[in-house]
Structures are given as structure tokens and as C-alpha cells.
Design a protein that fits this description.
The protein is an alpha+beta fold. The protein contains 17 helices and 26 strands.
């Protein structure tokens, strides 16, 4: 423990002298209120400290005490179904302590020290264990089993292990190590700025199924992958992340509200407990952790919230779970970096952001991955970050640097959102780099070649964009029938496939098999239309409104579990063109 005195206060940043024995990233207690802070710069015995609470009333001469430990999170049973702030203080507990309006200095342990958990050992006395090995299990919720692991840095022989009900800080096992006996509880701590270790990273070869057609079919995200969702205000970033959080086939969801509006986090808090997980029939909160650091909370905690979230994700990954983390939004996190950097009087780079912005963004996304865990299982952390470029300018520093370090870019379009096209993901500017890695998965799971079909229709959509420029100048009638057919099929793709209704019980989540059947049906419609054009059938006859309407409405009319209906729909398409052939020629 080291004590110093405050010499300067600049908003959330303070300077304190007399801390020569302190270390960078040490947590400190500031003033008699014991506000939580973190050392982010050392110059001699003068420490620059970012304070995670309001600093009003603090002045030179107030005392600062170091704890000697870096900013860490508590890991153990009791994290799921909780809502924390950016430094893992449980907001529900803080409300009990301070009421509706939080007071400075009010804090609480992240995990309940009084609640007991039923611990069932899976290891035995005399077993040799290494860091990350599973000692036993706790049923944390009705859908998630919490696996108690040997702490990182501990290895040896189990001398004693108990079964029964324990609090998180009671000893459940004793491990005999080279340095003596080590008592192990269900509670672990880990510094948030340090990635948890794994055996090795492996290529992500399985998609994170979100149920959103434009993502799963056209721009898939791999389990253990990285994705960015940039878009201007009102384009639906939060809505897309909500949909992914609700329906993605991840075992655990960590949702980090970083600097967003309080009403959005209120919506999350109100909606998620009422949502039923289609896989388990239970509330989705039973596999979710919420971290809320809204725009009216201290800016310094915003910078920590992203690291808090990814550390929790890595912990569940180490148990062998697949975790999806939503960061909403990393732009607010970058703005917090910019503000703190400015107060540190560092040399600004582009648009005032610190010169180390790219390395911080890279460091965050590098913590994603599909890994072999220390316990010998496989787990993954998928990082999906929203980006909020000012004015929708994708060339600004946060978006540009994020683009360098992610493999999926889901560019949202304000015009699509205003035209009620949701998800408002612009297929012209988006991309996914995971297609080659996922091809084997598609080949094994689907009866057909989805990657080739995807390329075909992305090319058509790009061709349609060029044709629309001509149509705007001289009208559609001047185009040859082949190109008018392209326009019509692309309308079917956009309205019947890419556009999705979150309020329709059938359309809100679509399994990959149905997505593929839908796209194959559209492709059948297109190919039969091209054959009809060869027989000189007029485009006005080919564009049968009733038939095209049925194809567009198949997303509502065909249930997710009743894919056999696609057979009859395709038969109806074929029969229609065969009937045309009786007048214009054979169409096989």
C-alpha cells in the first residue's frame, strides 16, 4: 500500500504525487470517499489516475491510496442474469444500497458472498491437475452449468476436494503444489487488460448462426470471429445487435452498452428477461450478462467496460462454451480514450484521437478466437462491435481502423433504414472474409453449394445497382428484357430475402436450411425466367405478379419447421413456365 496526495484535478483525470512505489494500471482509492481509480501513466513519483466516478468536490491535498493490484474482475458462479456497470459493480445491489440515484463511493462485490451454490466435484483426491482443468460443476442457471477450474498459475495434486453447498469464497479443494498447499475456492480474479491464456488458436470453421438472412447467407460471422457493424445515427446498429444477441447460437451472450443512451439499455433490461430462448424454452437472461455504462456515467468507466466484458467472455470460453460479445459501441469507447488522452496532454493524431488508437482497437479484437482451452476442450469468443461514425462517414479513424482488424464488415445504410428495409445492411459495402473457412461446414450441412449461389446473387445485386443508374436517366423500358428480368429478380431478393421482419414470429429468426431453400427458390424463378426469354416470351408475361408475390411472401407462408412446402412452391414455378411453353415453346 502506498499513499500520495492529489496535486491536480482535470475532470475524470487526477494527478497525485508521492506514489513512487506504485505500478501502471494499479487500482487506487481516491479521497475520503474512496472513489475507484486506475493509474494510467507514471512520471517519477507522479501518477496520472483516471477515476471511475464523478470527481466534483475533490481537490489538491486529498489523499490517494494504492491497492497494489490491477483492475480486475471477479469470476465465479452468480455472474449470469446480472447487470453490471463498467467496472463490474452490480447495479441491482447498488440500487439497494443507495436508492434510485447512485452516490459516489458506493460499491459492492461483484459476486454475492452470502449465496451458497451446490458444488459437485468431477475430479478426485490424488488427481494431478494443471491450470484450467475442471475441478467440478455448479448449476448456475437451468441452462448453463458453471465449471469450476483450477486457477491460472496453479498446478499440482489434489489433496482434498469437497462436495456440498458453499459460498463463492469458501474453500472447495486443496491442491498440493511445489510452493505448498493452495486453497481453491469458486471465486477467481483476473486483470481485465490481460488476455486469459489458451493452448492455441484454431481456424474458425463454424458459422455463428444469427437467424438473420443477410448475415448468415451473404456476410457470415464465424464462431470465434470478429465483426463490425458501422452505421450513422438511426440506421439500426443497436437493433441488429439485439437480434444477434437474442437469437445467435452462442452458449453465452455478453452485452456491453458502452456510452449508449440510457433508454436503450433500459429497453435491453426490460426485453431480455421476457424473451424466450428457442433452444431451451427458458428466459434468454439465463445465459446472458449485461454490462451497462451509459452516456451519462463517468467517461473513464466507459473505457474499462469493454475490457470487463471481454474478460468475462474469455472465462466462459475457458469452460468450453461459445461466447458472443456485443460491444455497443466501440466509438464511444474510442471517444473516452480521446478525452482521457487530451487531459493527459498527449500529442493528438487524426481527428484528435490518440496515436495508439489502432493498437487499442487491435488489442481488443485480438482477444476473439476459437481456441483449444487449457482443459483440453474447445471454446470461442466472437466479438461484434458497433461503430458510430459521426455523420455516417466511414472514412473517420475509428471505422477505418476497425476495418483493418475485423473479418466481417456489416455496413448499415441510413437510406435503407428510412425506407423501412431492416436489417439495413448495405450489400454493396459489406463483406465477410470467412467464406473459404466455412465452405466445408456448408457442404456437410446443406444440399447444394451456398457459397456459389451467394456469389451469383451478390454479382446480380451489384449489376442491378448499375442498371438503376440507367433507369433513373432514361427509364426501364429502354433496357433489354434480360436486364429487366435482373431488376425484377433483384427486387425479389431485396424484399423477399434480405428484408426481414423482427415482429413476425416466423420471420424474426430463420434457420440456415430455410435460408438456403429460399435462395434456391429465387434462383429457380430466375433460371426459368431466363429460359422463357430464350423462347421470346414477353417480359410482361414472365413477371407474373401472383407468382412473384408468392415467392416474396414465402418468408411468412412457409414455417421454419416445414421446409417440404418449398417443393410445392418450386413445382408451382415450374408448372407456370411449362404452361407458358404450350404457347411459346418448350421450357424444360
Amino acid at each position: 500500500m502506498n499513499k500520495g496526495k492529489i496535486t491536480k484535478v482535470s475532470g475524470p483525470l487526477i494527478e497525485a504525487s508521492g506514489l513512487s512505489d506504485a505500478n501502471i494500471y494499479d487500482v487506487v482509492e481516491v479521497s475520503k470517499d474512496k472513489l475507484i481509480g486506475e493509474i494510467i501513466e507514471m512520471r517519477g513519483d507522479v501518477a496520472s489516475i483516471q477515476v471511475y466516478e464523478e470527481t466534483t468536490g475533490i481537490g489538491p491535498g486529498d489523499e490517494v491510496v494504492t491497492t497494489g493490484h490491477p483492475l480486475s474482475v471477479e469470476l465465479g458462479p452468480g455472474m449470469l442474469e446480472k447487470m453490471y456497470d463498467g467496472i463490474q459493480r452490480p447495479l441491482e445491489k447498488l440500487q439497494d444500497l443507495a436508492g434510485e440515484f447512485l452516490k459516489r463511493g458506493v460499491t459492492s462485490t461483484a459476486l454475492d458472498r452470502e449465496k451458497t451454490w451446490e458444488f459437485n466435484p468431477t475430479a478426485s483426491v490424488s488427481d494431478k491437475v494443471e491450470a484450467g482443468d475442471i475441478l467440478g460443476e455448479v448449476e448456475e442457471t437451468s441452462v448453463i452449468t458453471h465449471k469450476i477450474m483450477v486457477p491460472i498459475g496453479v498446478s499440482g495434486t489434489i489433496k482434498d476436494i469437497k462436495a456440498g453447498e458453499f459460498t463463492v469464497d469458501e474453500t472447495i479443494a486443496i491442491i498440493e503444489t511445489e510452493d505448498g498447499d493452495k486453497e481453491v475456492s469458486m471465486l477467481q480474479k483476473w486483470p481485465v487488460r490481460q488476455a486469459r491464456p489458451s493452448t492455441r488458436k484454431i481456424d474458425p470453421d463454424e458459422p455463428l448462426i444469427t437467424g438473420q438472412r443477410v448475415i448468415d447467407t451473404f456476410f457470415p460471422v464465424a464462431k470465434g470471429g470478429t465483426a463490425a457493424i458501422p452505421g450513422p445515427f438511426g440506421s439500426g446498429k443497436t437493433v441488429v445487435q439485439h437480434q444477434i444477441a437474442k437469437f445467435a447460437d452462442a452458449d453465452i451472450v455478453i452485452y456491453v452498452g458502452c456510452g449508449e443512451r440510457g433508454n436503450e439499455m433500459t429497453d435491453v433490461l426490460n426485453e431480455f428477461p421476457e424473451l424466450i430462448d428457442p433452444k431451451t424454452g427458458e428466459s434468454i437472461m439465463k445465459r446472458t450478462v449485461l454490462i451497462a455504462n451509459t452516456s451519462n456515467m463517468p467517461v473513464a468507466a466507459r473505457e474499462a467496460s469493454i475490457y470487463t466484458g471481454v474478460t468475462l467472455a474469455e472465462y466462459f470460453r475457458d469452460m468450453g462454451y461459445h461466447v458472443a460479445l456485443m460491444g455497443d459501441s466501440t466509438s464511444r469507447w474510442a471517444e473516452a480514450l480521446r478525452e482521457i488522452s487530451g487531459r493527459l496532454e498527449e500529442m493528438p493524431a487524426e481527428e484528435g484521437y490518440p496515436a495508439y488508437l489502432p493498437s487499442r482497437i487491435a488489442g481488443f479484437y485480438e482477444r476473439a478466437g476459437y481456441v483449444n482451452t487449457l482443459s483440453g476442450t474447445e471454446g470461442s469468443v466472437t466479438l461484434i462491435g458497433a461503430v458510430s461514425p459521426a455523420g455516417g462517414d466511414f472514412s473517420e479513424p475509428v471505422t477505418e481502423n476497425t476495418k483493418r482488424f475485423v473479418n466481417v464488415f456489416l455496413a448499415l445504410d441510413k437510406e435503407l433504414a428510412y425506407s423501412r428495409h431492416y436489417p439495413a445492411i448495405n450489400w454493396m459495402n459489406s463483406y465477410s472474409g470467412y467464406i473459404p473457412l466455412l465452405k466445408n461446414y456448408y457442404d456437410m450441412r446443406l444440399d447444394g453449394d451456398l457459397p456459389d449461389l451467394r456469389i451469383k446473387y451478390l454479382d446480380l445485386l451489384h449489376k442491378e445497382a448499375k442498371l438503376n443508374e440507367i433507369v433513373m436517366l432514361v427509364g426501364e423500358d429502354v433496357l433489354p428484357d434480360e436486364e429487366r428480368l435482373v431488376l425484377e429478380i433483384c427486387r425479389v431478393v431485396k424484399v423477399g430475402f434480405l428484408q426481414q421482419n423482427a415482429f413476425n414470429p416466423i420471420d424474426t429468426f430463420v434457420p440456415l436450411e430455410k435460408q438456403f431453400e429460399m435462395l434456391k427458390t429465387i434462383d429457380n424463378l430466375y433460371e426459368r425466367g431466363k429460359e422463357a426469354l430464350k423462347l421470346k416470351i414477353p417480359i410482361s408475361v414472365i413477371k407474373n405478379n401472383k407468382l412473384y408475390g408468392k415467392v416474396i411472401n414465402m418468408k411468412y407462408d412457409i414455417e421454419n419447421e416445414n421446409l417440404k412446402k418449398f417443393v410445392s412452391l418450386n413445382n408451382e414455378i415450374n408448372d407456370f413456365y411449362v404452361e407458358l411453353a404450350s404457347t411459346y415453346g418448350d421450357v424444360e
